TrEMBL record:
InterPro entries to which the protein is assigned, alphabetical: Peptidase_M11
Keyword Endoplasmic reticulum applies: no
Name assigned to this protein: Parallel beta-helix repeat containing protein
Comp. bias regions, Low complexity: 505-518
Organism: Nitzschia inconspicua
Organism ancestry: Eukaryota, Sar, Stramenopiles, Ochrophyta, Bacillariophyta
Domain of life the protein comes from: Eukaryota
Length: 711
């Protein structure tokens, strides 16, 4: 996983498999157990078996934890972080205080509002529960220290929660927002940021929770500033799990009546180590460890979870989509970035600027003009421009079928596709997007339900003139290929064409079907007085003209009256040009040692790297200036029998992996390696590059190397 510090990744919740609101019943055992006597006071928490039915709302919770043995390097610790996932059940205060469950009065204080749910398979809950929209009804459950255990003898059912009882954070309108700064009463240090600093970082800053949500939604979602409340709790907060239950249960003066606020952010002190931030999905609360409460990318990410947004990933990393706040984040005080097309479609901020296309073998050709978030809503609602286009596979019958995993890749078919335009003017609300500026983005979502809490994946980012293809997109095995082409760019507009090839139409018959014309007249009718003067003209004998083999011509109405203005970004700089190794190691690279050599292979003069002998299996450069660049990319042709590494380092520093390149042993292919780890380490202005074989007996051939920077 790659992270970036200026730039530290904040990605907390892992999307469960396609969660849908359904009404499914599951019972275990024939009857609940009898009520057991409460254990005597012995310093331990008491257990209760509840014969009465308990009803509670299910919420998904996932916390990012530091490694068991922290290194002291925040970036390294994040790269080795651990994730804890669990389901919790929220019980109504009224039912606890009203003693609906028959709890002894002197034990009622031990019954926590939020209970960790145990004794039921988590995968079952992932499949059958919808966080914030499902209710668990159980008899015979065992309540012990802050958890609700579904015993073997218990019976339970999961149902849809009535809409009027749901406590979801809306994604539209004005959201009244409160911030609680938490301290313990044991002398522990409070959060580093003062109440005044938190007010500035959350409500007043140029880029903060309030300003960036308003900007990214073009006013469809606004944050209404509430007070910064100082709360001292009765015990040491002790981490997210303890804090959630102890504070919300035992400190009534600090508990916010949910009718008064739509969102509540809890900023906890620095003594509660080992975690970064978390939120309950489809709920009103989010929690931040110390100074993580101050960073806008963390705020939008966690509140995004409150609004039912899941993580945004790329390749096999669930957080690596750097075009969305639901992917990576940074520890920058001010950051200007928004969301991806999957998020926009789900949030409903631009109802006039989303579109659906039914992808099928008879879909024909469709053309759209896409706008990025910076220009969305300004004129698009009236002139047909879109911020998100959903390409739905109408041939799909099994909506739970997803993707096909192989050893080296995931074959992303079947799922719906989302198109967007990651436009960046260089000065607007999306100017800190970390990758694929002014590219058309192609995403998929793990669920075909556009409103579901479900992981999104960045599949491709297209430059002008490029197209992306989905062979056998419909899963029917008929050779049908879906094409998505970024055909043209004019100022802030991206022109996109969508069409299908590989369709064979059944030709019309060469003569009328025999069943349409009887060979003899019916016996009850006399023959005609005279035969027809001639037989009917036969139908055409040739098939219709086949579909074109290339993309349709662009829409004629979009041609500008003058030459298109070049896109202002990305401003690509060639740091060093094509190294084709026709002479030695070119003008840039240096041999690392005995396992690096210039050879003739497959009619190419190229560099051969082999084995796993460190520097000796590499070629490297002297220090190159990359000052002022926002992102870096190394491109090259290669043939390799094993994976190998592209690395970088600052002068006199240690080598850092920029990317691992996969096997390509059927011919030379083109590789593009983005230097995300360089971004995450603050974009140092001078670096060395290295390409290194790191597999015993592996052989790699490299040619035509180019190094780019993007501003």
């Amino acid at each position: 996983m790659n992270f970036r510090t200026s730039a530290l990744l904040i990605a907390i919740f892992v999307a469960p498999p396609a969660i849908m609101a359904i009404n499914i019943t599951s019972f275990r055992g024939s009857s609940p157990r009898k009520l057991r006597p409460i254990n005597p006071e012995n310093g331990q928490w008491n257990e209760n078996i509840f014969e009465k039915e308990i009803a509670c709302t299910l919420y998904l919770k996932e916390i990012l934890l530091e490694p068991e043995i922290p290194s002291g390097d925040p970036l390294q610790d994040l790269e080795n972080a651990r994730t804890v996932t669990s389901w919790s059940c929220e019980v109504d205060d009224e039912e606890i205080n009203g003693n609906a469950y028959g709890i002894q009065n002197n034990k009622r204080k031990n019954f926590k509002r939020f209970l960790d749910l145990t004794g039921v398979d988590e995968m079952y809950l992932d499949e059958h529960a919808d966080s914030g929209n499902s209710i668990l009804k159980v008899k015979g459950a065992n309540m012990k220290f802050k958890e609700l255990e579904i015993t073997e003898e218990a019976t339970f059912v999961i149902e849809d929660i009535p809409e009027e009882r749901r406590r979801l954070a809306p994604s539209l309108g004005a959201l009244k927002t409160k911030v609680i700064r938490v301290s313990g009463n044991n002398g522990a240090a409070p959060p580093t940021a003062t109440a005044a600093q938190l007010k500035d970082d959350i409500f007043d800053d140029a880029s903060c929770l309030k300003s960036q949500f308003a900007a990214c939604s073009h006013g469809a979602l606004t944050i209404i500033e509430g007070p910064i409340e100082e709360v001292t709790i009765a015990t040491d907060p002790g981490g997210p799990a303890e804090f959630t239950k102890d504070w919300m249960e035992g400190n009534a003066t600090a508990l916010v009546a949910k009718g008064e606020y739509d969102l509540v952010l809890f900023c906890q002190p620095q003594t509660t180590g080992g975690w970064i931030a978390y939120a309950y999905i489809n709920y009103w609360s989010s929690f931040y460890n110390n100074d993580w409460c101050q960073y806008v990318s963390v705020q939008l990410h966690e509140v995004g979870h409150n609004m039912n947004l899941a993580h945004a990933g790329e390749a096999r990393s669930e957080y690596e989509d750097w075009t969305s706040m639901m992917g990576s984040g940074t520890n920058l005080d001010d950051e200007y970035m928004c969301f991806n097309s999957v998020n926009y479609y789900q949030l409903g901020w631009f109802p006039g600027q989303v579109a659906d296309v039914a992808a099928s073998t008879h879909m024909g050709s469709h053309a759209f003009v896409l706008n990025g978030v910076e220009s969305a809503g300004l004129s698009g609602a009236s002139n047909g421009k879109k911020i998100a286009v959903r390409v739905k596979n109408v041939n799909l019958e099994d909506t739970n079928l997803c993707c096909i995993d192989t050893q080296f890749y995931t074959d992303w078919r079947i799922r719906d596709i989302y198109l967007g335009y990651n436009f960046d003017s260089g000065t607007g609300i999306n100017r800190d997007t970390a990758e694929y500026r002014n590219h058309v983005t192609v995403h998929q979502k793990d669920s075909n339900d556009p409103s579901a809490y479900s992981q999104s994946w960045l599949l491709a980012a297209l430059q002008e003139g490029q197209e992306y293809t989905f062979p056998n997109f419909d899963g029917l095995g008929g050779g049908h290929t879906l094409h998505i082409k970024f055909s043209d760019q004019v100022n802030e507009d991206a022109f996109v064409e969508i069409y299908v090839t590989g369709i064979t139409l059944t030709p019309n018959p060469t003569s009328p079907p025999s069943t349409n014309f009887p060979t003899s007249p019916p016996p009850t009718l006399p023959p005609p007085t005279s035969p027809p003067t001639k037989a009917p003209t036969p139908l055409p004998t040739r098939a219709p003209t086949p579909l074109p083999t290339r993309a349709p011509t662009p829409l004629p109405t979009r041609a500008p009256t003058r030459a298109p203005t070049p896109s202002p970004t990305p401003l690509r700089t060639t740091i060093f040009g094509n190294q084709n190794f026709e002479v030695g190691f070119g003008s840039v690279f240096i041999s690392g040692g005995s396992n690096c050599a210039r050879v003739l292979y497959s009619n190419r003069n190229c560099i051969r790297l082999r084995n796993n002998s460190g520097q000796a299996s590499s070629m490297y450069t002297n220090a190159r200036s990359v000052s002022g660049q926002k992102t870096l990319r190394l491109e090259f042709d290669y043939y390799s029998t094993a994976t190998f590494l592209v690395e970088w380092r600052v002068p006199n520093g240690s080598w850092v992996i920029a990317g691992t390149v996969g096997v390509a042993n059927t011919g030379f292919v083109r590789a593009r390696v983005n230097f995300d780890s360089w971004v995450s380490r603050g974009r140092p202005g001078s670096i060395h590059l290295r390409i290194r074989s790191n597999t015993t007996n592996g052989v790699t051939y490299v040619d035509n190397v180019i190094f780019y920077g993007f501003k």
